Design the sequence.
């Protein structure tokens, strides 16, 4: 690869302006109020793929939001890389916690990003990281250095479970045929400690509803005599963990993979400061399952967390009411071998069984996906490792992530190819939270590193 840094330097301002324009679009797939914005984002991605050098770019309709497909086929005898990403974003609420409007991107310096970071919803997850691949393709095409074939599949429903992607993949196996899948929707340990994600947790996401009386009641006339759904729900949720923060659902751990002492020791070699971790989160102490370290708790162990809880009166002032209903949204992060559908059913059975008389419980599954572990002895992984080593000056550390990308397991099942997770974000980038951001340095480092993956993967697979 020649002139990679020069091309980036010559086009730096344009590369920044282009991602900023994409980030201005509030493509929130979870909220129908933003449906046109999601479609607008798909159109912009299509246009940018065409500008980058794809010979074919198509918008494929689904029962939900469309999938943008693009390809640059230079020689069918050469390897093919399929790039996956998503153009939809999480809701920005609570808006009052943002230091700048979520869809008015600004670049601000931080302690971890002295060169500045782009603050906007979707900056890191996943518009910024997805767009690195678009610019990397442009770089390779414009400098006449594209060594292999490239396909793009950019969807608009990742943040709501990718429900229609599985149908699309199953119906387009020939179109999507590839030698490796490349995704940047993960992170790395630090800017001076590159890492490659080799494992992802699965996910089961449910909503629960607890109903008591047939209407809201006066808390003075009925308090103490009728089951309060909010009180009941909080007690039920509290019972889902024991004193060791072990999940109490029967059968929940039956398929959990237990890593060996040797494997855990290797994981522990990754640089980590508990003091810096606590300081960054402004907490006095960490918290979690007994017997495991912080990095183990958030990567190789399953979890159960309440993501939202509501019911009754939450407006200004007081209203003495016993609510008729109470609700909660609950996510369970799963480890390899745990089947998300089985876990969802175990949760449903358990939660309904612990409900006391006087209330009824409904468990509504939302979405989920399987965990994934990728081997580190493949040509694709070695190519990625060599690419990082070329641009960072040091070999990356293989690392399991606590996050979930449910479609990765689906890709291997349907397309029979492995996935390489080349993430350039940091844990501190506040994805899914107010003030999400992505380092300018990280953005350009991704554009610089990705072309080397293409070069080394092509060289290794042509042997």
Sequence:
């Amino acid at each position: 690869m020649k002139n990679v840094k020069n091309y980036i330097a010559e086009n730096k301002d344009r590369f920044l302006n282009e991602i900023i324009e994409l980030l201005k679009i509030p493509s929130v797939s979870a909220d129908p109020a933003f449906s046109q914005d999601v479609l607008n984002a798909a159109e912009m991605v299509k246009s940018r793929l065409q500008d980058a050098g794809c010979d074919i770019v198509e918008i494929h309709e689904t029962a939900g939001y469309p999938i943008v497909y693009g390809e640059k086929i230079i020689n069918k005898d050469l390897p093919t890389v399929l790039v996956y990403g998503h153009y939809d974003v999480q809701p920005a609420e609570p808006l009052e916690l943002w230091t700048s409007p979520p869809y008015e991107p600004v670049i601000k310096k931080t302690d971890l990003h002295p060169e500045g970071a782009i603050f906007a919803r979707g900056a890191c997850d996943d518009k910024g990281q997805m767009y690195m691949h678009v610019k990397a393709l442009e770089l390779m095409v414009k400098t006449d250095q594209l060594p292999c074939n490239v396909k793009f599949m950019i969807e608009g429903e990742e943040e709501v479970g990718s429900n229609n992607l599985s149908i699309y993949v199953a119906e387009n196996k020939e179109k999507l045929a590839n030698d490796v899948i490349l995704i940047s929707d993960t992170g790395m340990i630090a800017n001076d400690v590159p890492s490659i994600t080799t494992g992802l947790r699965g996910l089961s996401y449910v909503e629960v509803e607890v109903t008591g009386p047939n209407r809201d009641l006066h808390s003075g006339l009925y308090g103490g005599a009728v089951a309060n759904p909010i009180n009941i729900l909080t007690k039920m949720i509290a019972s889902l963990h024991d004193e060791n923060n072990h999940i109490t659902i029967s059968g929940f751990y039956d398929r959990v993979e237990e890593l060996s002492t040797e494997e855990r020791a290797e994981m522990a070699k990754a640089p980590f400061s508990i003091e810096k971790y606590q300081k960054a989160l402004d907490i006095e102490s960490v918290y979690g399952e007994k017997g495991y370290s912080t990095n183990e708790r958030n990567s190789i162990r399953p979890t159960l967390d309440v993501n939202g809880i509501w019911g009754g009166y939450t407006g200004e002032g007081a209203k003495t009411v016993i609510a008729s209903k109470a609700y909660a949204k609950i996510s369970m992060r799963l480890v390899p071998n745990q089947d998300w559908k089985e876990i969802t059913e175990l949760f449903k059975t358990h939660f309904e069984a612990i409900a006391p008389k006087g209330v009824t419980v409904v468990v509504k599954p939302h979405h989920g996906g399987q965990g994934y572990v990728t081997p580190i002895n493949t040509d694709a992984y070695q190519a990625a490792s060599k690419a990082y080593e070329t641009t960072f000056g040091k070999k990356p550390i293989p690392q399991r992530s606590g996050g979930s990308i449910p479609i990765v397991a689906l890709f291997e099942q349907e397309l029979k190819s492995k996935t390489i997770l080349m993430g350039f974000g940091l844990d501190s980038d506040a994805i899914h939270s107010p003030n999400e951001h992505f380092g300018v340095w990280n953005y350009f480092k991704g554009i610089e590193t990705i072309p080397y993956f293409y070069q080394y993967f092509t060289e290794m697979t042509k042997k």
Remarks:
- The radius of gyration is 23 Å.
- DSSP finds 14 helices and 18 strands in the chain.
- The CA atoms of residues 47 and 444 lie 21 Å apart.
